[in-house]
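User: What would this chain look like folded?
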Amino acid sequence: MHTQAISPATSLEVASSVLFMYDYALTFEKEIDLFWHQSRRTWPFAFFIANRYIGLLSRIPVFFASFYVNSSGLYSSVCSGLLISAHLVVTVLQIIGTLVMISRVYAFYNRDRRVAMFLIAVTSIATGMSCWALSYRRPPPSPEQIAIGLDTHAGCPDPMTTAEYA
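Assistant: Here's the prediction, encoded as structure tokens.
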């Protein structure tokens, strides 16, 4: 008899998401006072809003991936899409954070173009590597290599081979 349970990793994901959203609720009033009541919109405002709300909305695919009832096996297209979208959002948030840091360092070095070009080059290389990592897919292990637990956990699994499990 198979039972479906929530894995400890899923429990931690849910707890961190709830804490993340609670922090949003606590700071929302200050956000309105400090950012939304300004008469002019600037690039820092746009970066702040993008970082804040992309991060909040990115929790949706994580919730779906955590509780998706996967009846089509370990490599379903729904799980693959949810996990890829979560990775894409992380990449976008990293790019936004990098742009904020580049602009700060650029200002700190008195708007020296050499510093800006160096930082943009490093960022381009890192973004290219990130895109490659997202597009690379290792071949799925054969069914006999997949470690089977006693319980079937709800959500999209990240299958481990028996070598990884040991």
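The longest helix spans residues 77-108. If you want, I can go into more detail on any region.
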